[in-house]
Hints:
Elements: H1 6-29, E1 33-38, E2 44-49, H2 50-74, H3 80-83, H4 85-110
Antiparallel strand pairs: 1-2
Helix pairs in contact: 1-2, 1-4, 2-4
Amino acid sequence: MKKINFKTEIIPLLVIVLSFACGFYFQQIMPDRVPLHWNINGEVDNWGDKSTGVWLMPFIGLGTYIMFLLLPLMDPFKKNYETFAKTYHLFKNLLLIFFFVLYLITMAASIGWKVRI
Length: 117
């Protein structure tokens, strides 16, 4: 796969930095107990402490990004990544954006906004 460059990494890096910045903001305003998971009916079925609720998704996003960087280096079929590099980067970006939007929805529900989960 081609070398990592700023052009292909700007979006995921911005999403990760923004999620951690939001984490510092939300850490100040979250209640001590926050919802972590909702069931299929939209009811909270798992609660956690503030730190877990605020920092879980930013770290999952960071871990996912690192996984996407390391995967082409570990895969025995390294050459195949060159054939679908654009799709690979698009999928990486969309997945990180999805995690970020999910994080924002969770934080909004945690601070009392009426969010339909």
